[in-house]
Specification:
Strand content: 5-15%
Distance between the termini: 48 Å
Number of strands: 10
Shape: globular
Helix content: 25-40%
């Protein structure tokens, strides 16, 4: 892929960035990754050991991307993606696929998952840090294969920040490293828009994990979260306003081998901090929580506070399907979760997504599903249910006053908007009274 210069990137990005969110409908989109076919996983391993030629691997990748885009379109999804079929990991793609041991080595443990397995962070052996591979390359390869709008997930600067020791690398200081990470991440986003993406989301799976003190993952701890948020805001500040409005931030408790890494960490500690990020919108896991309605209530409270403080209130897409569970959600269940969420989150700020990416790492056996191929079928079925259920929720919630919310459930006239819940009316402003009973935030 030829690399456009900066003027081409910025000019194309202004064209590619979507228009403002429609207040007439509930948006819905996937997070990012989808399970890779078992044949692709085998081809990657065989290519690494020299059993197959690189051309064979590229054919498998191309086939997986074409199949992904076709099946995505069949779900009725308004945005599609390649499901990260060409990536081995959401966390390490900027490093590329070939490097020497004197450049990158195995770093510390990133996360220990509930089933006992762990993932490690690649670590720079010497500076400076530079992107070797760009998310835009995936967009550019997918763009000619579909007429539908594309979205692209990108690495967070906070994840990349874990790749250098606290004291830097000799003459290459941590501050210099952060400057390079911020510049690279901003360019990663701009290149994605220039290649034809309509929306871009930053994977922030480490946000919730940062609140845990775990000797097995020494980087984690509440002190890490503030620095992470600062880095993301520095990246967003580098982007033109039109791009920034189309950039989302996704948070979840992780999903790898059908297991999570931080589902036990209370959202009440993360959500107030999460909304300090100046993103255009957010994607927040909720379906797999013990109490999804509590997640919506916590979000609604922060949206009201943000409105009072700044008047700028982002869209929030809540998770309505659980990628770790092979049990299919029905469209009716998706509808009901969104209708309940609209009691706390103004409908004009609400949308739906999946809880997490379905398979952030390429080699993923999906043990609860039985096989990667079955997990792939389940993923598309869940996406189709999410799309249908969101449309049903729009019909159920329809009739609310489409206006920027000055307070959760209130339009510009100050009159409570109402939503129909199981045949009755319930004020979306019910969140105000529920706030008094929520003591854990």
């Amino acid at each position: 892929m030829s690399e456009p210069d900066r003027s081409e990137i910025e000019g194309a990005a202004r064209v590619a960035a979507p228009s403002a969110w429609s207040e007439a409908e509930l948006p819905t989109e996937a997070v990012g990754s989808l399970p890779r076919p078992a044949s692709l996983q085998r081809a990657v391993l065989d290519a690494e050991t020299g059993l197959v030629a690189p051309e064979t691997l590229r054919r498998e990748q191309d086939s997986a991307v074409r199949d992904t885009l076709a099946r995505f379109a069949e779900t009725g999804s308004p945005l599609v993606s390649d499901g990260e079929q060409r990536r081995q990991s959401f966390a390490s793609y900027p490093l590329g696929t070939s490097f020497d041991d004197d450049e990158v080595r195995q770093g510390p443990v990133f996360a220990v998952f509930a089933d006992g397995h762990h993932r490690v962070i690649p670590s720079l052996a010497r500076g400076p840090f530079r992107f070797r591979s760009w998310a835009a390359e995936d967009v550019a390869a997918a763009r000619p294969l579909t007429d539908l709008p594309l979205k692209q997930a990108v690495i967070s600067p906070s994840m990349l920040s874990l790749m250098v020791p606290a004291d830097g690398l000799g003459d290459y200081s941590r501050d210099e490293f952060f400057d390079d990470v911020v510049a690279g991440c901003a360019e990663d986003i701009s290149r994605s828009f220039a290649a034809g993406a309509s929306r871009v989301t930053i994977d922030f799976t480490e946000g919730r994990l940062a609140l845990r003190r775990d000797v097995r993952a020494p980087w984690a701890g509440p002190d890490a979260l503030g620095g992470f948020i600062d880095l993301i805001n520095r990246v967003l500040a580098e982007l033109p306003r039109a791009q920034r409005a189309a950039v989302g931030v996704h948070t979840c408790p992780g999903n790898d081998h059908d297991s999570a890494h931080s589902a036990d960490v209370d959202y009440a500690g993360l959500i107030p901090e999460l909304f300090q990020i100046e993103a255009g919108y957010f994607l927040v896991q909720a379906a797999s929580e013990k109490d999804p309605d509590r997640v919506a209530r916590l979000i609604g409270r922060q949206l009201r506070q943000r409105t009072r403080e700044s008047g700028a209130t982002p869209r929030v897409l809540i998770g309505v399907t659980d990628p770790m569970n092979p049990k299919l959600e029905t469209a009716a269940e998706v509808r009901d979760q969104l209708v309940r969420a609209a009691r706390f989150i103004p409908p004009e700020l609400l949308g739906s997504t999946d809880d997490c990416g379905f398979s952030p790492y390429l080699i993923d056996e999906k043990p609860k599903h039985g096989s990667p191929d079955f997990a792939r079928d389940v993923a598309f079925a869940k996406i189709a249910a999410r799309v249908r259920g969101t449309r049903l929720a729009q019909e159920e919630i329809g009739g609310h006053e489409a206006a920027p919310a000055s307070y959760a459930g209130f339009g510009r006239t100050g009159v409570r908007a109402t939503v129909r819940v199981s045949g009755s009316s319930a004020a979306s402003g019910a969140a105000a009274s529920e706030d008094r009973t929520e003591k854990t935030a």
